[in-house]
From TrEMBL:
Keyword check for Cell wall biogenesis/degradation: no
GO molecular function annotations of the record: damaged DNA binding; DNA-(apurinic or apyrimidinic site) endonuclease activity; lyase activity; oxidized purine nucleobase lesion DNA N-glycosylase activity; zinc ion binding
Record-linked Pfam families: Fapy_DNA_glyco (PF01149), H2TH (PF06831)
Protein name: Endonuclease-8
Keyword Signal: no
InterPro entries hit by this protein: FPG_cat, FPG_N, H2TH_FPG, Ribosomal_uS13-like_H2TH
Catalytic activity as recorded in UniProt: Hydrolysis of DNA containing ring-opened 7-methylguanine residues, releasing 2,6-diamino-4-hydroxy-5-(N-methyl)formamidopyrimidine
Keywords: DNA damage, DNA repair, DNA-binding, Endonuclease, Glycosidase, Hydrolase, Lyase, Multifunctional enzyme, Nuclease
Gene3D superfamilies with a match to the protein in the record: 1.10.8.50, MutM-like, N-terminal
Family: Belongs to the FPG family.
CDD domains: BaFpgNei_N_2 (cd08974)
Length: 246
């Protein structure tokens, strides 16, 4: 599943479509009135967490790439697109294997930008308040909670917990205050590193925990499992990642 930094990259790559008018729209989405999109200019492209948002005069389209979604700019895949937006000069923006949903209401009514770890409006104080209000939530679940850390996915989760030496099964209420603050800070810091490394085509080279077999600090096998309420894969070291609350 593409994480927040990848959606920001998509937004930046597609920036040239802002101000352009949709000449034709098609696809196999069952939720979109394609005819209504034609003739509408793209007022803005936005990202919130893992959501890519196309702002039009009469509506906003929310694209979620889910687990295996993808996009192409000025090219096509062999499979049919879920949504294809064409422009008069022949350029096009295509989305595949994703969720497309028209949103009602303004963007500021739907989204709290303070929760997006990559947004200028990101509020670490708000994230701390939300964490403290859910002391029983496990660290591995907290980092994946999009209401707290919009944009953080499984890669960032595993890497942040390893960097901070926090066991994924630690309840956030058991974390010392400096660790809790560090968790909030590193969720954002690592997201920007993720973006930097992905743009340089070297993201996997920097992984220390995610999908790795041996702890680079302790030189012992990593533990792995589908942990917490989210049941997402965790890779962690039982020796150097402390399990708080025991």
């Amino acid at each position: 599943m593409p994480e927040g930094p990848s959606i920001v990259i998509m937004k930046e790559q597609a920036a040239g479509f802002v101000g352009r008018t949709i000449a034709n729209a098609s696809g196999n989405s069952k939720t979109v009135d394609f005819a209504s999109l034609e003739g509408q200019p793209i007022l803005g492209l936005h990202s919130w967490g893992k959501h890519f948002l196309i702002e039009l005069p009469r509506q906003v389209l929310r694209i979620h790439l889910l687990m295996f979604g993808s996009y192409r700019i000025n090219e096509r895949k062999d499979t049919d697109p879920r949504l294809s937006l064409g422009f008069e000069d022949g350029e096009e923006f295509n989305f595949y294997t994703c969720s497309v949903k028209p949103l009602e209401g303004g963007l500021d009514e739907v989204y709290d930008w303070r929760a997006d770890v990559m947004a200028d409006a990101w509020s670490p104080a708000l994230a701390l308040r939300k964490l403290r209000a859910a002391p029983d939530k496990l660290a591995c679940d907290a980092l994946l909670d999009q209401n707290i850390f919009a944009g953080v996915g499984n890669i960032i989760k595993n890497e942040v917990l390893f960097r901070l030496r926090i066991h994924p099964l630690s309840p956030v209420g058991a974390l010392p205050a400096p660790k809790l603050r560090a968790l909030v800070k590193d969720a954002r810091d690592y997201s920007f590193l993720f973006k930097e490394w992905k743009l340089a085509y070297e993201l996997k080279k920097h992984w220390q925990a995610h999908t790795r077999r041996v702890c680079p600090r302790c030189d012992i096998p990593f533990s792995k499992g589908h942990l917490g309420a989210t049941k997402r894969r965790s890779f962690y070291c039982e020796k150097c990642q402390k399990r708080y609350g025991n």
